[in-house]
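Can anyone check this?
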Amino acid sequence: MTSLLRYGRSFGVGAAFAVGWTPCIGPILGGILTLAAVQSGLGQGTALLAAYALGLAVPFLLAALALERFLEWFQKFRRYLGWVDRIAGALLVVLGILLVTDRFTLLANYLQGLTPEFLKSRL
């Protein structure tokens, strides 16, 4: 594979992330810009925007670094996709039955029991 094709794939993955994250970027960035604008000092606003930029950049950089390895792994995993589809379908049927019979709260209560207390206290 030529390096130009590799760069093209990287660009495509980056573009897909950008399209997927666009709805989140506007409101979040708007809120951070508003907070930065009302801060008393330049350093506080700069720190807020730096944290936002870092939080936005790190997933893209990690994805770019891990993409080749993921594609190699996925080629090996493809033969199991039929089973993944069947299992996911069965789980959806079970969840649908729980919803129709109004028993979904049993699953929610069970999962809530597995939730650590420090997370529950934040709700």
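Reply from J.R.: I decoded it. The chain has a mean pLDDT of 86.
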